[in-house]
Design a protein that fits this description.
Order of helices and strands of chain B: HHHHHHHHHH
Oligomer: heterodimer
CATH class of one domain in chain A: Alpha Beta
Largest sheet of chain B: none
Distance between the termini of chain B: 50 Å
Strand content of chain B: under 5%
Largest interface: A-B, 28 and 19 residues
Helix content of chain B: over 70%
Radius of gyration of chain A: 18 Å
Largest sheet of chain A: 6 strands, mixed
Number of helices of chain B: 10
Structural class of chain B: mainly alpha
CATH topology of chain B: MetI-like fold
CATH architecture of one domain in chain A: 3-Layer(aba) Sandwich
Helix content of chain A: 25-40%
CATH superfamily of one domain in chain A: P-loop containing nucleotide triphosphate hydrolases
Structural class of chain A: alpha/beta
Order of helices and strands of chain A: EEEHEEHHHEHEHEEHH
Shape of chain B: globular
CATH architecture of chain B: Orthogonal Bundle
Radius of gyration of chain B: 20 Å
Strand content of chain A: 15-25%
CATH class of chain B: Mainly Alpha
Low-confidence stretches of chain B: none
Low-confidence stretches of chain A: none
Number of strands of chain B: 0
Number of domains of chain B: 1
Mean pLDDT of chain A: 91
Number of helices of chain A: 8
Chain lengths: 229, 228
């Protein structure tokens, strides 16, 4: 996916992504300080926020190939099961109960299948939202801050699911997170955003261990996470 | 206290017919208002147009409009010499249904619109992430606010069965034809038949309770179908 001269004015904030490329089949991380435009960019890529000018070349991906899950996911006022099968129903696909059980088990929600989704804990709601995004085999998944506020076990589960997916059937991921340790572990490429633009793109090794861009160095210093040594 | 309950006078006000008229009028007007109100609320939330704020404000004003004013306007429209006089709906149940529909539709529309403004953008964004098309998105929005729609309809029904002014003006309170339970109570009061009036009032409340319970039961059935 290629982004060219993408602009979006939101109040006093201007998103202005000159050039960005998200190679297919890779896990991309977007990092940057609060207010740098990460979520705005992800919403525009998802198509839930219109942009003012510029272009996004989805390289053949359609609306139904892309999905997104966020820190406060929307869950329908129904059961865990009905939430999980919704993307399959939207695509008129046959409901494969084994597939449903497989994903529920992966997320540790097997015994909560018939439970009212909104009665789940926030961590469980995020897990449900995550497996709901994967069950229909999307080609691009945008994960906006889902890794935040998760207990270590759940965060590990997310990492494991992403890595398993990439080994089995690689898809494109765009993950936005302040959890730099996770980003380093799971991403193939990291994009650094500042003031509405992607100003640096590098491998996790280059971005976190040997950063050269002064803005990246400053940001990493502010996060107090050390990748040296 | 109620030994004179079914005195000749009580029976002559047409209590049984007033129950029938009330039910027919309330069910018809609530059904029409529900369809219109929900549809208008969806259209209003979905589309941006010049003057939208004014339309919303007018609807809110109509939500609290005095029924007797709506009744008067309906009467003027439907009376023999009025623009819709050819319909010959004045002093008929049809005319009362029109007045009630004009009273209840803004209430249902306004309530549903408020729910939609709060929730529809979130649901729409979610539906997009799930790959839903426009039709599936609209269906999802309706399904997600079904409890609120139900609450609005029950509120509309409550308003319908309890209304006096408009139905008195448009219906004329004609015994066995357009006399509703509320206008019958008013007639009984004028005649000093308080006990019968109270009984009719209690019957009215029991009816409201039964309708509410029935709606609750239907909703519960629908909810249980969802495998919670």
């Amino acid at each position: 996916m290629k982004i060219t001269d993408l602009k979006k004015q939101q109040g006093s904030f201007l998103l202005n992504v000159k050039n960005a490329q998200f190679e297919a089949g890779k896990v991309h991380g977007i990092i940057g300080a609060n207010g740098s435009g990460k979520t705005t960019l992800s919403k525009i890529i998802m198509g839930t926020l219109p942009y003012d000018s510029g272009s996004i070349d989805y390289e053949g991906l359609t609306d139904r190939d892309i999905t997104m899950t966020g820190q406060r996911p929307y869950l329908m006022h129904t059961s865990v099961y009905n939430n999980l099968i919704y993307p399959l129903k939207v695509r008129n696909r046959r409901i494969d109960e084994n597939l449903v059980d497989y994903w529920l088990e992966k997320a540790g929600l097997q015994d909560k299948k018939k439970q009212y989704a909104l009665s789940l804990s926030s961590g469980e709601q995020q897990k449900l939202s995550f497996i709901r995004a994967l069950i229909f085999k999307p080609k691009l998944v945008i994960v906006d801050e889902t890794l935040s506020n998760l207990d270590p076990d759940s965060a590990d589960l997310f990492e494991r699911l992403i890595l398993e997916q990439q080994q089995k059937d690689p898809i494109t991921w765009i993950t936005i997170s302040h959890q730099l340790v996770h980003i380093r572990k799971i991403c193939d490429m990291v994009h650094f955003m500042e003031k509405g633009n992607i100003i640096e793109k590098a491998t996790p090794q280059e971005m976190f261990v040997n950063p050269t861009n002064p803005s990246v160095i400053k940001y990493l210093a502010s996060t107090e996470v050390s990748f040296k040594g | 206290m109620f030994e004179n309950l079914f005195s000749d006078y009580s029976l002559t006000v047409g209590m049984l017919d007033s129950i029938k008229v009330t039910l027919i009028m309330s069910v018809c007007s609530t059904t029409i208002s529900s369809v219109l109100g929900v549809f208008l609320a969806i259209m209003l939330e979905k589309h941006n147009f010049k003057g939208k704020k004014l339309v919303v404000r007018i609807n809110r004003t109509l939500m609290g409009a005095p029924p007797v004013v709506i009744g008067l306007l309906t009467y003027i429209l439907l009376r023999k010499k009025g623009p819709l006089g050819d319909l010959r709906w004045v002093f008929t149940i049809k005319g009362m249904v029109v007045a009630q529909t004009l009273i209840i539709t803004p209430i249902i529309c306004g309530m549903v619109y408020s729910y939609l403004v709060r929730t529809a953008p979130k649901i729409r964004a979610f539906a997009k992430t799930m790959g839903a098309d426009k039709w599936q998105t609209d269906k999802l929005i309706l399904s997600e606010i079904k409890n609120e729609i139900y609450f609005s309809i029950v509120t509309g029904f409550g308003r319908s069965i309890s209304e006096v002014g408009a139905v008195m003006l448009v219906g004329g309170n004609i015994k066995n034809r357009t006399r509703t339970m509320t206008t019958a109570i008013s007639t009984l009061k004028s005649a000093g038949e308080f006990e019968a009036g109270i009984v009719l009032g209690i019957i009215l409340m029991i009816m409201a309770f039964i309708v509410q319970s029935l709606a609750d039961y239907i909703r519960k059935e629908a909810t249980e179908d969802e495998n919670y």
